[in-house]
């Protein structure tokens, strides 16, 4: 075959798709999720919205099996990460949580240095070479838009950072493991408007390289940052679709009532 006839290699398939199929979840006798069917495309931002107690955080934590650590829980159906059920035996918990990072409502840095916070995951995963760790830490902090603010204080305690900086540090800590999916549970609800804006700008940048699923009570935030929005109510997924349509012409009257502030 001549050079002119050579076939170009196929582009790499984007990883990080999340698909829930008839997924239900119980805490003991209480059913928290009912027959959820939802597809999340790679390299996008999906917002989960709905009133408190509607199941959106339960669903989020089910994606990386955080809920599996609780006693008395059970589930039916499947949640697939790139075609592999996250609850299957072949999906080890350590591997799953490396591929699916998570950020909580309240930042939770380790009581260690900034450097050791970001380098913790790679060290646990077997990376010991100092130059490799240095490169990973710098890259993760760059991607979390924090490097310029902390590059001269990497050996200082992470607890000395502001709340917004600590939240971005936790994002950097997750990014150091090269996840395909990032789960955000009310990541800006405890932050001031300036720090919130930085988190939102960061989400906009990160969706170019990974999948983001965010739980938020802030409908304006959902409208600003997400490609698609899913409305949960009483454990059910009522409606899901492109964010602009969900906020301007939802199909379900319960969605419209929530979006327009008549309840929630």
Question: What's a concise summary of this model?
Answer:
This protein is α/β, with parallel strands linked by helices. 34% of the residues lie in helices and 24% in strands.
Task: Give structural notes.
The strands form two sheets. A six-stranded mixed β-sheet has the order 6-7-8-3-9-10, with helices on both faces. The chain is α/β, with parallel strands linked by helices. It has ten helices and ten strands. Helix 6 (163-175) runs parallel beside helix 7. The radius of gyration is 20 Å and the shape is globular. Mean pLDDT is 91; it is low at 1-12.
Q: What multimeric state do the chains show?
A: single chain
Query: How many angstroms separate the termini?
Result: 65 Å
Helix content: 25-40%
Low-confidence stretches: 1-12
User: Strand order of the main beta sheet, please?
Assistant: 6-7-8-3-9-10
List the helices and strands in order: EEEHEEHEHHHHEHEHEEHH
What is the overall silhouette? globular
How many distinct helices? 10
Strand pairing plus helix content: what structural class?
alpha/beta
The Rg value, from CA coordinates, equals 20 Å
Number of strands: 10
Our estimate of the beta-strand percent is: 15-25%
